[in-house]
Amino acid sequence: MTSQQSRELVQGAWRAFASRDPEQVSAVFTEDAEWLAPAGNATAVALGGSNHMVGREAIVHFLTVDFPRLFTKDVTVTFRGFHADGDVVVVEETMEATLSNGNSYSNDYCFIFELRDGLIHRVREYMDTARGARMVFAGQDG
């Protein structure tokens, strides 16, 4: 794929993620896709999930079922950049939402998408984990 095609594929994937439609989300991942986020990140902890999802089915379930349980409304993503080099696309963004605990959420992210055969094969996700934890767990003991 050209860099432009890779960029367009990942931009389309974000539209699929926003749809929360399992078929649309599933269509952008390889069967053996992986999604890696920092260990102990607030989203994984709050949802009782893993920071390393393996397989299309696990990723689709997270994006269409689990994610909306924590980020319940007003989810907006402001993209800062899509940077592509061949089959690798780096996405810079800010995500804002209302959390299930009523708190406002706003955090900056960097995603590195690795593509294979015109699909997403691996995602590496980076964010400010301490900032995320403060918003997700604010007002809770422990």
Automatic annotation (TrEMBL):
Q: Which domain of life is it from?
A: Bacteria
Give the InterPro entries listed for this entry. NTF2-like_dom_sf (IPR032710), SnoaL-like (IPR037401)
Which segments constitute the SnoaL-like domain? 11-122
- Read off the PANTHER family from this record: BLR2505 PROTEIN (PTHR41252)
List the protein's name: Nuclear transport factor 2 family protein
What organism, scientifically named, is this protein from? Streptacidiphilus cavernicola
